[in-house]
Give the backbone structure.
Amino acid sequence: MRYDTDNIFAKILRGDIPAFKVYEDAETFAFMDIMPRSPGHCLVIPKTPCRNLLDASPEQLGACMRTVNLLAKAAMTAFGAQGITLQQFSEAAGGQEVFHLHFHILARHEGRSLGPAGVMGDMAEIKANGEKLVAALA
Ligand code: AMP
């Protein structure tokens, strides 16, 4: 499977479409998911092309995991969470819809299920939750 340079996250990385950025370093970029399944649902991606877990290099995975770790801890603080669910889907059969490697960080609370996938969130709320994450990272 080839990397499609026109996938939506490649467009976000190029600045062709907007995103609520929460973190960036030389190798990774993190931004809010616009269809959140838990408060502050965000995504971590490598800045370099990579379709998913199956073609990722150790360097890309290592860089993403460093950022995932930072964001997971920030989400615990920002949303008073009791746990984190980390999701990664590879290929359509694995549930992947956007074909640029990404990790979902989902803050979890006891007894609260994840919301449904594919439901557009409230943009003002997503922005406010992104600001809470940024504040918790500081
Ligand atoms: P998946 O490939 O199954 O891991 O799902 C892709 C994820 O990307 C879903 O959770 C979508 O809500 C999210 N998503 C799709 N388009 C955008 C976008 N423009 N900005 C932020 N998140 C997005």
